[in-house]
Amino acid sequence: MLQTLASRGHANGTAAHPTTAAVKANAMELIWIPISVLGALLQAVRTAGQKALNAELSTLVTTYVRSFFGLPLLLVYLWFVKEWTGQPFPDVNTRFLIAAFGAAFSQVMATVFLIQMFTLRNFAVGTTMTKTDVMMTAIIGSLFFSEAITGLGWVAVILTVTGVFLMTFARAGVRAFLVQGEGMDAWKPTLIGLAAALGFTFSYLFVREASLSLENGDVMMRAACSVVTVITIQVVFFGAYLLWREPEGLKAMFPNWKLCTFIGVTSAVGSICWFTAFALENASYVRSVGQVEAIFTLLISLFYFKERFNTAELTGIAVTVAGVLLFLL
């Protein structure tokens, strides 16, 4: 990653143009970027749906909806990949199962904290803290997981995070980030946001480890098997817990089936995008590109709510885009 396509010289020493095959190969190496952008868009849409659903259902049940209503589509996708590629299912090993359980648990906890932020008075602070997942992923991944980040990669990561922070500060205002009140309540948005970021960080890293631990199958097959396994674990074990603690809450999903289905479908397609991107590239790079989710949020404000961008927001967008473009080098 993060390297330009080197062209080979002719026998007479003159530079040759990249062959069509080489250009296609380079394009395939970068396919994770548009996949990550699509995943970010779907995540922004799905989160909006969860925020609306949280007004009707509890935080835990709202978290469960994305897995329960998304699993059928993911099973269809796995069947499609198997039929289309003609590959057998990869051999499951202990390393894969440990990573899949780690991803399932950390993703559930992160989503619980994310949805809990919807009820906070200072939502902007909590949301901004979740964006630190990019730096957490880069640091924890390089120390304890298989993340190999280049110098230019670190620059790209820092740029995208800086851009998102600029956009958030510009929209919410600096005052929103000043500590207000006394005691733990004043720090609650920050702590919940950081907890969500840490949960998402481990979910990204475990997802990539799960995919890399499968020794046979191409990227699509390994990603499909990983996403179905992780979501199935969530549906079974998280569902059993809710059946014990909130049986009435589970029943309440079905009168809201339209919104639940919308969340399930957007979550399933988004998960396919994320899992495929993580199978192709470092989790920290994927999440850095995924920061364009903040740009999508601003664009919705511009075209739907007819709000205008200010200078700081435009600067934040430019810095974020610059960070993403570095991954093309």
Molecular structure report:
This protein has one domain (30-326). The protein is mostly helical and 329 residues long. The protein has helices at 20-29, 32-53, 59-68, 71-85, 94-116, 123-130, 133-144, 151-172, 184-213, 219-245, 247-251, 257-280, 283-289, 293-303, 311-326. It starts with 19 loop residues before the first helix and ends with a helix.
Report the helical percentage: over 70%
Radius of gyration: 21 Å
Approximate strand percentage: under 5%
User: What letter string, H or E per element, gives the SSE order?
Assistant: HHHHHHHHHHHHHHH
N/C terminus separation: 8 Å
User: Major sheet, described briefly?
Assistant: none
How many structural domains does the protein architecture include?
1
Number of strands: 0
Per DSSP, the total helix count is: 15
- Overall, the morphology is globular
Low-confidence stretches: 1-16
**Average of pLDDT:** 85
Q: Structural class per helix/strand content? A: mainly alpha
Give me the secondary-structure topology.
Layout: H1 20-29, H2 32-53, H3 59-68, H4 71-85, H5 94-116, H6 123-130, H7 133-144, H8 151-172, H9 184-213, H10 219-245, H11 247-251, H12 257-280, H13 283-289, H14 293-303, H15 311-326
